[in-house]
Amino acid sequence: MSNFRIKHIGIRTDSAEEAGETASLLAALFDLSGIRATDTAVWAGDLFEVMKSDKRGPRGHVAMQTDDVEAAMEALRARGIGFLEDTIRRNEEGKIIFVYLDKEIAGFMFHLTV
């Protein structure tokens, strides 16, 4: 089985304002360096991606990092897990580097990434 690590937690909020407030609080609580905003989220360090809104998962998502996404996909397929094909991202060589699982768990979606 692939070696999985939590890369970050995506927390769903309803607005850019709420995302900023939440990210600031998380950064202060856990001594995370850097608040940075993107079009879709406000990051508290590299650990929390506070989504301004999110179409995946009512509570958000969990990013699972692995050294080989394709090998991890095969291992998870053997356990009955499917993938959202429209979320696949590939590197320059065509190797899959990102994909969402098709299963929501406790209100969270999960994605694999390198």
Give a structural overview:
With 114 residues, this protein is α+β, with helices and mostly antiparallel strands. It has a single domain, classed as 2,3-Dihydroxybiphenyl 1,2-Dioxygenase, domain 1. 20% of the residues lie in helices and 39% in strands. It is built from two helices and eight strands. The chain has helices spanning 16-29, 69-77; strands at residues 5-12, 35-37, 41-44, 48-51, 60-65, 83-90, 96-101, 108-113. It has an eight-stranded mixed β-sheet. Strand 2 (35-37) and strand 3 form a beta hairpin. It is globular.
Overview features:
2 helices, alpha+beta, globular, 2,3-Dihydroxybiphenyl 1,2-Dioxygenase, domain 1, 114 residues, 8-stranded mixed sheet
